[in-house]
Write a structure and sequence with these properties.
Layout (H helix, E strand, L loop, with lengths): L7 E3 L9 H5 L5 E4 L2 E4 L9 H5 L5 E3 L12 E6 L13 H10 L4 E2 L2 H17 L7 E2 L4 H10 L13 H17 L6 E7 L2 H8 L11 E4 H13 L12 H4 L6 H4 L6 E5 L1 H12 L8 E5 L15 H11 L36 H15 L15 H9 L9 H26 L1
Parallel strand pairs: 5-6, 5-8, 7-11, 8-9, 10-11
Antiparallel strand pairs: 1-4, 2-3
Helix pairs in contact: 3-8, 4-6, 13-14
Length: 431
Amino acid sequence: MDLFFHSVTLEKEKCVGCTNCIKRCPTEAIRVRDGKAQIISERCIDCGECIRVCPHHAKKTKFDHLEKLKEFEYTIALPAPALYGQFNNLDDIDFVLTGLKELGFDEVFEVSRAAELVSEATRRLMADDSLPRPVISSACPAVVRLIRVRFPDLCPHVLPLRSPMETAAGFAKSEAAKKTGLPMEKIGCFFITPCPAKVTDIQRPIGVEKSMVDGAIAISEIFPRLSSKMDKLEQIEPISESGIIGVSWASSGGEAAALLNDKYLAADGIENVIRVLEELEDERIRELDFIELNACSGGCVGGVLCVENAYVAKARLQRLRKYLPVSKNHLREEIPQGMSWQESLEFSPVLTLSEDLGEAMQMMMDIDDICEKFPGLDCGACGAPSCKALAEDVVKGLAKESDCVFVLRKEVRQMADIFKNISGGEKEPRQ
């Protein structure tokens, strides 16, 4: 099994080595070598930022297609609430849900239903003060992976609850098994995803041994066919069982607002997320109870697999919520075990220079010495995202100091001076 499965892939034939991606990657997981981008597997968190900024469409996302439904006897669609924001003038979620059934799904279970249950479970956990403050949302898998590789001290603060996607799949499969009498393995749950991080989370989940979701279909993949089906609907089924709280999870701030607590912070966009995490790590943020972080600008509606502008989609959801009740889903008594993580989040030292402390310290000093030779411009011309990253690559034997154009220029000038002196010394005797 590939420990570092990734949904984000590179099509090298389309890559021109423009360095846009290396500058925006939050974990410095990309280098440009020999004129082509290379993704460092163990560093990548599948946030999709490189897909967003690549002007040549050399970065792609792996996802499933509707044909995979044939592998199961009974299929369930799990639409992310961000899907609703893709449609103009939508005033009834049942149009979308009925359209999904027309596409071939036997049943639809809204992820927004599970989001309301996760919100209530979070309120209960925070009420008994069993979690260290501030609590960090675990809903965005890209953020969870970022914390795991870059912010080890914050791992205990991550909310140990399954995402709404996983929670929805668990409830949907249980209900379908009772209804049909089929075993779980013959029931397929497919998440309609706005981002590549969710695809990765299904294949290599964090906090649980195995995902309850059997596949992920991109919103951009399903949107044209779904729109066509919706235009031809003759009868609408009353399927929706979500309220404002669940649908609001689609955009930044929706999860935090559902906690009914004003001591929260919501940040979106990977660069803003990193700044918040750095301040948290430095203990400059103390007064908050809950922090919601979304790698995509605007929240899930800003995912690279969506088709609509994030802020247009957010505005559409605001109008849609006017027709919804506050919430339609509640936990009966205790939080079900199936909603909690099976294991705690552990730091993954993929950015560590060496497991040997002495060797790591020496490498750090070497990196500092090499950095002093570089101009500190972080221009990316060397194929690394920063001067420090290039120095680290040099120490690891993956690059040369002369990959820096400024160092190379200096070396060329020195060689030119040497040849000039040699040439000048040879001419004098001939005169």
